[in-house]
Amino acid sequence: MTDPRLSTEQAELATTPRSQWADIWDQFKRHRGAMWGGAVFLCIILMTIAGPWIYWNDPKFVPTGRDFLELRDTRPIYVALWESSAKVSWAYPLGTDNLGRDTLGRLLAGGRVSLAVGLAAMLLSVFVGTLIGVLAGYFRALDGVLMRFTDLFLALPLLPLLLVAVLLFRDRLSGLFGPEGGTFLLIVVLVGATSWMQTARIVRGDVLALKEREFVLAARSIGTSPPKMITRHLLPNVMSPIMVSATLGIATAIITESALSFLGFGFPPDFPTWGKLLFDAVDRMELYPERVLWPGLMISLIVLSVNYIGDGIRDALDPRIRGR
To answer: How far is CA 258 from each of CA 47, 171, 194, 245, rounded to the nearest angstrom?
Structure first.
């Protein structure tokens, strides 16, 4: 005979509604690329955050005297496997640059800056794009003006605009916030202010579709104010494209910052970023190709992993394919 208490518990478990976030997580786990991308992204973040505290070499230290001649231009230790005459040092696993600064230390410290720029610029671009998209989609009077404003930004040549803006405002902001803080603030504002247009268009299209749904019409019929309508009914239903745009915005911001640093318009010379490491290594790329390899590999890995995470989030938040 069966225990009636067990059957009651089984019936309660069967009738308990499943959490929507649990369904989203189950769908996200089925996307292998997103899981691998998330693992790589998490490893890079942990490496760049904890690495400078654990690794023993100062990325800004420049040796002097006889140490400078001995430690400058050392090769990574793995080069000694096939080139016995290479100058290597076990204290510097990835070698040093032409000034004797540790490459691995600069790679870890540069990752902090690049990721910080990417995350901060992404938050700014998502906020501006969501705000403009919601206002343009909900208020018909603002739609034409805001969309023509968006088209204007889409038509601008962004890279020359960024270069001119850096030349005009870098010295002023550096005088107010310091060379590093001023450059960080300038690059974040410039990248965030020039990458919100796609988010605005996507959010506007979803808001236009949601505005004609029955639950929005019912909320409007009982006198719900526009701010409450936007925050309670529209924004929760457009979180899927916003989150996807946020993940892709990180990759866009990192690539833009790397391009500015590579062209020599980024952070000061003694402040490493992945783009700055590429810029410093180009002149001697034929002699020391590994100096270009490692920062380029880090940029490629972070951009690729973020793109896979965005694909997984898009699939997980789409109710039409959830459960497949």
So the answer is: 19, 20, 15, 20
